[in-house]
Amino acid sequence: MMFGPLFLMALSLLQVPLGDGQGCLSKRSVLTTLRQMQKLLSSQEAAQLRGLRGLRKQLTLLQGNLHKQAAWGNETCPPLAAPSHGRKLGKKAGVGHEAHFLCDAGFQLVGAETRLCQENRTWSGQQPFCKGIDDCSGQPCANGGTCVDEVQRYVCLCPGGWTGSNCQTPAASYWVSLSNNSFSRQPRCAENAQGARQCSCDAGFQMRAGGLCQDVDECQLFQLSHQNRICVHSCVNLPGSYRCVCPPGYLLSPDQNTCEDADECAEQRHNCSRGELCINTFGGFQCVRPECPRPRHNTSYVKTSAFQCERNPCPVESQACRQAANSISFHYLPLPSNRTVPRVLFRMSTTRFLGDSLRFAITGGQGLGAFAVQRSDRHTGELVLTSPVPGPATLEVQLEMSELSKKVLLGKHVFRITAFISPYEF
Ligand SMILES: [Ca+2]
Ligand SMILES: [Ca+2]
Q: Per the confidence metrics, is the pTM higher than 0.70?
């Protein structure tokens, strides 16, 4: 294509007319032109060759690239299989691609979770596999049962006397044949990490010969001794424990061992009639009606409060009236049985002391052998319990406090004490 114009130019030069004189010049000029043309052709040829070489080089390069691209497309790693009981994620196996592995429920993957197709057309890592999870690993079988691992479950093989999915339930027939009451129980057994069987009894039971757990009779052990007794009243032995029981009128304390009196008066659980007063006692209550003495020998009393009577003014001529008590008060003392002695039960004194001395005396009552009166200071007398009184009992004591001035009686006060002693020492 490039030679076309060059040949046309050469032909046009050859078509120049040739003369005699001018013939030598023309030949010379033709020769020059031809040499120029040859030179031109040579340079053209060289350039053409350079162009061809460049073209060939480019073609070779292009061909190389095409070969390379074709070769890359074929660079794959060998196909990977999914593990049994599992799956493989990622379908491409070309260089640079990854495959991921998962296991079905109840199985766990062992090995590489991910594998990469490397440039040397091999997968990284090792082929993983799915291993069944050991359902017995948590030692689910109780009482010495043997665990058998199955796919996604376990089975307990129970020893004699035990049943249930985890050998947790005593077999009824076996239980009855072993013991006809619940004070005997099978021990709880388990295998430790070293495979040794270890048995133990529930709290409140102890292992007896033969490997049976026998209830501890706490009442037998501790209740008989007065010092160590566990219940203040009665003890009931129970399988694995015990219970303290209180008599009627008492409530079991929060400590579960002692009994507390129920205050029927405060809780309005008494049956005292109208006009009676409710006195709470240990284990019960009493209904009382404090009454003033009836008028006698010109002496009469008036109730000044629920528990007190005051003498009305005496007629001037009545000596008997002036000798009678100026006041009579009523006092009710609840006491447990067999209280330790000596024990001060009551104190008497006066706020309106006019004379120069006070005298205290027991002037009446029942069970007087158990009481005494003593002076604690110049103005105070005390009623003292001097010997233990077993209940149930009701004791009455009348005390007198006389006020004197130069041995002349100025006034007299009477205290009527009633002690309600409960049947129990609490
Ligand atoms: Ca017990
Ligand atoms: Ca009570």
A: no
